[in-house]
Write a structure and sequence with these properties.
By secondary structure, the chain is mostly helical. The protein is built from ten helices and three strands; from the N terminus they run H-E-H-H-E-E-H-H-H-H-H-H-H. Helix 1 crosses helix 4 and helix 6 packs across helix 7. The longest helix is centred in the middle third of the chain and has 20 residues. The chain is elongated, with a radius of gyration of 20 Å. The relative contact order is 0.08.
């Protein structure tokens, strides 16, 4: 089961995160990987040899995908929720961190399991931040995907109560649509953003 759980983390993973997800010690987790390491299915990264600080990678993406496919949808979602929450807990300044996309993707995959309103609100902000970062990196299609995801998480009735967040979502959606060449949709969202400006000063 450990290799299947590792496949949920991604093609690269470290022992510390994997052991926290499995609930085993790092030594026990390492023992569970040892056969796969000997077979070359999982490779240690770096040149210092294999120890408990090692990072690992699957020898090929197809191996990771095969292990991932052995999990049921429910198992995948529960595991990715755990991973996303753990990474979030261990990361300072998430919106500026290298793992912003990883955390957001894990939690998006598990969003059906997230019921807490504060956690949903946090996921909205993570998707908004991921969209902005992707846009800055000229990855316009992923930016649009993230902003779609953010907006789908907002309660339908929340749009009737303009806030700085709903305005920011509309602005980012408009920019993302525009950069993907969807100009008529972009214009519609820019109009909504203007009407959502929360004060005369914002307008």
């Amino acid at each position: 089961g450990t290799i299947k759980i590792a496949s949920c983390i991604g093609s690269d993973f470290d022992l510390k995160i994997l052991s926290e997800i499995t609930g085993l010690s790092q030594e026990e987790t390492f023992d569970q990987l040892s056969e796969a390491i000997q077979l070359g299915i999982i490779l240690p990264k770096g040149t210092h040899g294999v120890d408990l600080l090692s990072e690992f990678s699957f020898q090929h993406d197809k191996i990771q995908q095969a292990a991932f496919s052995l999990l049921s949808k429910e198992e995948r979602q529960h595991t990715q929720l755990k991973i996303g929450r753990l990474l979030l807990q261990e990361t300072e300044s998430v919106e500026d961190s290298d793992v912003l996309y990883d955390i957001t993707d894990h939690l998006n995959s598990a969003q059906e399991l997230i019921r807490d309103k504060a956690e949903i609100a946090q996921l909205v902000r993570l998707n908004l931040a991921a969209s902005k970062r992707a846009q800055t990196a000229t990855a316009y299609q992923p930016a649009l995907t993230y902003i779609h995801q953010a907006m789908e998480l907002i309660d339908a009735d929340a749009w009737g109560h303009p806030t700085a967040l709903t305005r920011d979502l509309y602005v980012q959606r408009a920019e993302s649509e525009h950069l993907c060449g969807n100009n008529s949709i972009a214009a519609e969202y820019f109009d909504k953003a203007v009407s959502h400006a929360s004060s005369d000063l914002d307008r």
